[in-house]
Specification:
two-stranded antiparallel ribbon, three-stranded antiparallel beta sheet, 153 residues, globular, alpha+beta, 23% strand
Length: 153
């Protein structure tokens, strides 16, 4: 068997990994990546820990969740009008994608943005290395006020 496939199966077999992915996937659309073969069908969701392992057994190499939150992600249809999409959306996370040809510049920029968030009292955020030359800063929907300037967020 392929050593990379074995490693993926061991990883996605871990209960803690499954629970973390499942927790993040709640009320979100999930894009399942199949290596160089592209992504799975849209829309897709994860409901059970066994979904993750079964998808990995079928060649899934990674799971990507939307920054958007949905009342029911399975109601999404490709080509749906924006107004209808807005009716289905319950919120979204803010994702800042810091990218530069030089990873050092990305590190410095990410650090400065995090310091700015701290300065303004925003403590709910996450940082993830993108895998190449940048970082993703994620601010969850729950960190935002219900209204800004009288408008619902």
């Amino acid at each position: 068997m392929n050593p990379d496939f074995d490693a993926l199966l061991r990883y996605y077999s871990r209960r803690d990994i499954q629970e973390s992915i499942l927790e993040l996937a709640k009320d979100r659309e999930v894009a399942v990546r199949y290596g160089d073969h592209g992504y799975g069908k849209r829309p897709d969701i994860l409901q059970y820990n066994t979904d993750i392992l079964e998808l990995a057994r079928n060649g899934a190499t990674s799971f990507h969740v939307s920054e958007e939150r949905w009342f029911n992600p399975l109601d999404i249809q490709t080509g749906m009008p924006k107004s209808k999409m807005n009716e289905l959306r319950s919120g979204w996370d803010c994702v800042l994608d810091i990218d530069s040809p030089y990873v050092e510049y990305s590190q410095i920029t990410t650090h400065l943005i995090i310091e700015t968030l701290k300065f303004y009292g925003i403590g709910s955020y996450g940082v993830k290395f993108s895998g190449r030359k940048g970082f993703h800063i994620i601010i969850p929907f729950e960190a935002f006020p219900e209204k800004v300037g009288g408008e619902n967020v």
